[in-house]
Amino acid sequence: MLIRLSTFQSCRLYRIWHPTSHISAARQYSTKPPRRIIAKINQLRLAFTSVFDSFLKFRHVESFISRCKAEGKNDPSHSSTTANITTTLPSIPSRTMESIEAPVTGIKETVVGTDSAIELTDTPAGIIKLIDSLAQSDLPTSPPSVYIDLEGIDIGRGGSISILQVFILPLDEVFLVDVYSLGEQAFSTKNASGITLKSILESQLILKVIFDVRNDSDALFSHFGVKLSGVIDLQLMELASRSRARNYVCGLAKCMDRDLLQTSEELKIRSAIKSRGRQLFAPELGGRYEVFNDRPLDPAIVNYCVQDVKLMPELWKTYNAKLDKVDKVWASKVEEETKARLLWSQSPGYNGKGQHMAKAPRGW
């Protein structure tokens, strides 16, 4: 009777017959690769050999063409010869190329684009359009509709304002006011109803969200006589919404890193925009603050200016939700301290630099 034994069974029988030789027998069976693996290896070897041969033939033809050109033989009479040679090149198997390129094609590069729809508001007509957008009576107040930031050289009474960023949330529109070019005209231009940007910034009825209002208020008041009002200080909202120590305030970048709900891809893009902008204006990174005064504005600076104000609404939602869960006294403290910051920043003795700027308000 013929009995078929598996490899494992054969190995066991061999061990019974030859107890002292079972180790070598096991090694013999374990080191011998299956036929399908050998076939796969041979297939890959032939494929790569084909690719390599094609490469050598291509280099040979390329060398031949170069010699022809060097000898002046690239006239029409020789073009057919070259064409015949190149057409005889064997093509690389598509399946082989797919296997070679597969590890590469799966990698996505983070590309930071520029919002081409955003242009500098640098004319009286542009200012009037902004005023009309802000003066709408139906703009929501919860969440707030207006988010503001400033960029320039040493923002404050000792520096200058280059750009005033205004994001109107319901319209999903960003205005980059060219304060450097327009100067006083940016704040004194009137619309058909006689409303100016200055009067809107000073209005208590139009809520404006600003992160750390102190130096921005100082700059607007010192250079253009604008007394900011109706402000919600986002930095103070973050401080009040904490469940931990409130000894020091946080900067905007840290708040965004910690409190924004964002995917890893969104974080990469935001970090890239921030990094590229800082490389252009931060002196410690080889940049210069005067880049905010360059016209046309560098696309990387446009992205930098737009990003912060467009992300502020998400921070407001986060901190507002947290404030709803703590004692209501903290919301009142935010309002009171914001007003105190505005008064202090517009006073003769205000100093917007130093370690005191990082400390929380007294009693917090």
Automatic annotation (TrEMBL):
**What Pfam family is a match, any one?**
DNA_pol_A_exo1
GO terms under biological process: nucleobase-containing compound metabolic process
Q: Which SUPFAM superfamilies has this protein been placed in? A: Ribonuclease H-like (SSF53098)
A GO molecular function annotation here is:
nucleic acid binding
Domain (3'-5' exonuclease) spans: 138-318
Protein name as it appears in the record: 3'-5' exonuclease domain-containing protein
